[in-house]
Amino acid sequence: MSNTTQKSLHKSLCEIAVKWLKRAPSAGGPGCAVAMSECKSGVDGEIPDAIGFRRTGYDATDGSVLVEVKTSRADFLADAKKSHRISGGIGSWRYYMAPKGLIDPNDLPMGWGLLQVNERGHVKALAGHATYFKGRHDEYLRQACLWRFLDVDVSREQFLLVRALANTGDPQKVLIMLREANNRAARLTAAVERIAKALGLPQHTSSYEVERTARLLRQRIEHDFNKMSCLTTDIARHG
């Protein structure tokens, strides 16, 4: 495989990894609220191929999920020699992602999971707590605890998140814009409900149904008005 082809494959797998990180557990993903690719975790820290953060606030599955993409056997074997692989590192749960057949589950370092990607870009978990995403919730929680890394470098994760947030612009302005958008949405919802009530529609009728009913009512009124106008004209003409 040429260097250019390998780089292209690596980029494609990173994009697949980010999408997988955001996928809901019921669909075979960890359900991360935030996911990103190739962001620095410090001036001299590791640069994860993909990492996602899950925060629900109520179970043991909250934390960070790291995905390291490998496109060659040599790259996979060399990865074990990195300092942040020997101790510390980021990621509450850690996975290698590779094309089908490149990495065998028996070759994985202790605690690491494996995500296999086929020719069509479909991801299949062969090892790790991801293999329990679609199963019983109690078993999923148990496996999440078993596969979780405890020596996570939280300060580097914080660095990564702060840098990523700063790159999106002014967070306060974004929050203000979101609040204003939510307030406008709430006002529009209330207006739709008032119109629906005035039209005699059931509660929680969608805005589409309200618009459709209002349009039909307007057409009916215009039809009746035109009919009445023709009748009035006819009466005036014939006395």
Descriptive account of the structure:
There is one protein chain. The chain is an alpha/beta fold. The protein folds into 2 domains: 3-167, no CATH class; 171-238. Helix content is 49%, strand content 13%. It contains 7 helices and 6 strands; from the N terminus they run αβββααβββαααα. A 6-stranded mixed sheet has the order 1-2-3-4-5-6, with helices on one face. A hairpin with an 8-residue loop joins strand 2 (50-54) and strand 3 (63-69). The longest helix has 32 residues, at 207-238. It is elongated, with a radius of gyration of 28 Å. The N and C termini lie far apart (94 Å).
Provide a brief overview of the structure.
This protein has 239 residues and is α/β, with parallel strands linked by helices. The protein has helices at residues 3-22, 73-79, 83-86, 137-147, 154-167, 171-198, 207-238, and strands spanning 34-36, 50-54, 63-69, 93-99, 113-117, 123-127. The radius of gyration is 28 Å and the shape is elongated.
Topology:
Layout: H1 3-22, E1 34-36, E2 50-54, E3 63-69, H2 73-79, H3 83-86, E4 93-99, E5 113-117, E6 123-127, H4 137-147, H5 154-167, H6 171-198, H7 207-238
Parallel strand pairs: 3-4, 4-5
Antiparallel strand pairs: 1-2, 2-3, 5-6
